[in-house]
Amino acid sequence: MTITNGKVSLKHLVTMETLSNEEVLGLIKRGIQFKNGEVEIIHDRTYYASNLFFEDSTRTHKSFEMAELRLGMGMIDFDARTSSVNKGETLYDTILTMSALGVDICVIRHSEVDYYKQLIDSPTIQTSIVNGGDGSGQHPSQSLLDLMTIYQEFGQFEGLKIAIAGDINHSRVAKSNMQILKRLGATIYFTGPSQWYSDEFDIYGQHVDLDDVIDELDVLMLLRVQHERHDGHDSFSKEDYNRQFGLTEARYQHLKEEAIVMHPAPVNRDVEIDDHLVEAPKSRIVSQMTNGVFVRMAILEAVLNGKA
């Protein structure tokens, strides 16, 4: 990974841990340039991408598609339900096939944590891998769009007080964000049910009661309750969760005037956040979706720079 003439070059993007602070800021600023219409897109040839989503997705999947279309890339359709996966084909052999066919970038979401390791270590596979989410591991493109949203608002990360609230154990978004935000100088708080928190996260921040810090926060990052990743033994009440841990109207009023509310979506309305607050003045949930297209353009361009 390098930066040349202000442009980031990547071979793959699978985790935030492999990006330097300079590369993170370079991708954010490039995403802002794309959003502002300041970039002329010129390719030396047609590049091809395929989006291989083995878990359900709306925002990540479709914003990658939109980013690819805006960059003028050719798109190779893939649907796991009608592929040779149903005949027992492994992920490795699927990507080996895509590489052999000449696909330049494979954007992959898969339930297996670290699925990408054998792909990027293969001497045969030439396609670049962009991680669209690996189980409860990492979600680098979501992290970058979150960072872009914060940077547009505050112009910096140093000194910001940011709470990550909710189902932290099961959230790849939380894991990606806590690592990079800590490295960029933000103060991190974790809030939510103690059974959904692990002491391993203590190196990034402290677990607190949301009501104890809400008046001080610059950013409140809500997380979706991921029912599909629980073992089914937790008793759960939407009303109780909302009252104890969610963003209610009363808590919203305690936020500073300049504070912002974020959520990776899909939103469980009236669970993590009161329904009417999803589009409230302090909410940036819709802006995050918009920014997702432009930061993913920056990611794809950086990978294409690496190929060029």
Automatic annotation (TrEMBL):
Its EC number is 2.1.3.2. L-aspartate binds at residues 87, 172, 224. Residues 158-302 form the Aspartate/ornithine carbamoyltransferase Asp/Orn-binding domain. One of its GO terms (biological process) is 'de novo' UMP biosynthetic process. It catalyses: carbamoyl phosphate + L-aspartate = N-carbamoyl-L-aspartate + phosphate + H(+). Residues 11-152 form the Aspartate/ornithine carbamoyltransferase carbamoyl-P binding domain. Pathway: Pyrimidine metabolism; UMP biosynthesis via de novo pathway; (S)-dihydroorotate from bicarbonate: step 2/3. InterPro entries: Asp/Orn_carbamoyltranf_P-bd, Asp/Orn_carbamoylTrfase, Asp/Orn_carbamoylTrfase_sf, Asp_carbamoyltransf, Asp_carbamoyltransf_Asp/Orn-bd. GO terms for cellular component: cytosol. Gene3D superfamilies: Aspartate/ornithine carbamoyltransferase. PROSITE patterns: CARBAMOYLTRANSFERASE (PS00097). Carbamoyl phosphate binds at residues 59-60, 109, 139, 142, 265-266. GO terms for molecular function: amino acid binding; aspartate carbamoyltransferase activity. Catalyzes the condensation of carbamoyl phosphate and aspartate to form carbamoyl aspartate and inorganic phosphate, the committed step in the de novo pyrimidine nucleotide biosynthesis pathway. Belongs to the aspartate/ornithine carbamoyltransferase superfamily. ATCase family. This is Aspartate carbamoyltransferase. The lineage of its organism: Bacteria, Bacillati, Bacillota, Bacilli, Lactobacillales. The gene is pyrB.
